[in-house]
């Protein structure tokens, strides 16, 4: 009985030791998992911070360009509206001139129709005078010939006047349209050149406002040079001018 009791106690102690070892292993594994999770979280935080910093730098560079684009769009819209309203005013003026010319031409046509009616009346009179006697026929024919010549000369004058009016109307309309087109093209060219100059200045200002930090960090510190001793023989002072920096290209990406 005593031997059985001792063996049972030994087995109990062995089982407790095994359970304790397993518990320690589980605790160590849990600690390792926690350490891995903490390192992963810290890595994610550092990557997130770096990405946020890159986004901030990109936004700082992109902001002036967006402002320039918005300003350019506003200027383009304003110039487009100005050109549109100016062209509309020129078209209205040309339409008014054309209406006046058509009114004058209509008056000329009305007068010509009146002369044609008079000629038709003369033809009727000639038909009535055919029944007169032979004694009055020569006088009537001379009078009719004179009246026909007068009417022909008047009709020629009216036709010449109508032709001159048509040529003057066509010349005036052509000159007005050419002048309006030329002024519109010049205004558009001036607006486009001003817009390109403004965008170039804005992009150049955006590029020069963010200098790269790598170039300034990689330059070594300059060593101090000893001051030269003054000479007693000469009184002139030589000053060295720094070399002028090249102007940045506004169309190059920083």
Automatic annotation (TrEMBL):
The protein, known as: Uncharacterized protein
Keyword Membrane: yes
UniProt keyword list: Membrane, Transmembrane, Transmembrane helix
UniProt superkingdom: Bacteria
Low complexity bias: start-end ranges: 209-246
Lineage: Bacteria, Pseudomonadati, Pseudomonadota, Alphaproteobacteria, Rhodobacterales
Spans annotated as Disordered: 1-20, 209-254
Membrane spanning stretches: 65-85
């Amino acid at each position: 009985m005593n031997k059985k009791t001792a063996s049972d106690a030994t087995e109990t102690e062995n089982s407790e030791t095994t359970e304790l070892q397993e518990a320690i292993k589980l605790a160590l594994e849990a600690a390792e998992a926690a350490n891995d999770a903490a390192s992963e979280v810290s890595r994610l935080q550092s990557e997130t911070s770096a990405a946020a910093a890159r986004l901030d730098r990109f936004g700082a560079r992109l902001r002036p360009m967006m402002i320039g684009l918005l300003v350019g769009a506003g200027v383009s819209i304003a110039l487009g509206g100005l050109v549109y309203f100016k062209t509309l005013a020129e078209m209205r003026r040309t339409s008014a001139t054309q209406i006046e010319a058509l009114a004058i031409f209509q008056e000329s046509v009305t007068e010509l129709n009146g002369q044609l009616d008079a000629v038709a009346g003369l033809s009727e009179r000639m038909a009535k005078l055919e029944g007169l006697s032979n004694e009055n026929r020569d006088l009537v024919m001379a009078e009719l010939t004179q009246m026909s010549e007068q009417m022909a000369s008047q009709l020629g004058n009216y036709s010449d006047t109508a032709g001159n009016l048509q040529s003057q109307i066509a010349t005036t309309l052509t000159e007005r349209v050419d002048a309006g087109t030329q002024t519109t093209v010049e205004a558009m060219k001036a607006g486009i050149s001003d817009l390109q100059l403004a965008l170039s200045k804005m992009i150049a200002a955006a590029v020069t406002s963010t200098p790269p930090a790598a170039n300034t960090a990689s330059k070594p510190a300059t060593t101090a040079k000893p001051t030269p001793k003054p000479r007693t023989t000469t009184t002139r002072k030589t000053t060295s001018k720094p070399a002028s920096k090249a102007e940045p290209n506004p169309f190059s990406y920083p």
